[in-house]
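Deliverable D5.2: sample structural annotation.
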Amino acid sequence: MTPDLVTVAKEEHKITGRWFTPHVIEPSFGLGGILYSLLENSYNVRPEDSDRVYLRLPPCIAPVKCCLLPVINSDKFPSYLEQLQRSLTAVNLSSKIDDTDAYVGRRYARNDEIGTPLQLQ
């Protein structure tokens, strides 16, 4: 016969109605807490693929608002893209041109990771 490893018993305890008010002061109102809460609420993982992460930053605080992604690398596109970038800068919309040799899907993923709210092809 083996000894019982778990014993279940019913007990009654009288609990008094003592009130306790905690006295905790949080003196840290620095930028670190604000940035931490911002990143905590903006960091997301795709439900279908846990290896793919992205930031969903509110457009008002995203450092780069718009990314210009040329689908085809051609000699005529750089002047058009630079003109479009100047037009966006004129209306106070920060942008960047991603004309690397990577596939368009990889460039989209790269901009998702840094939290770019708008991506134009």
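Annotation notes: Residues 47-120 form a domain with the Rossmann fold fold (CATH 3.40.50.800). The radius of gyration is 27 Å.
The annotation will be released with the project's public dataset once the embargo ends.
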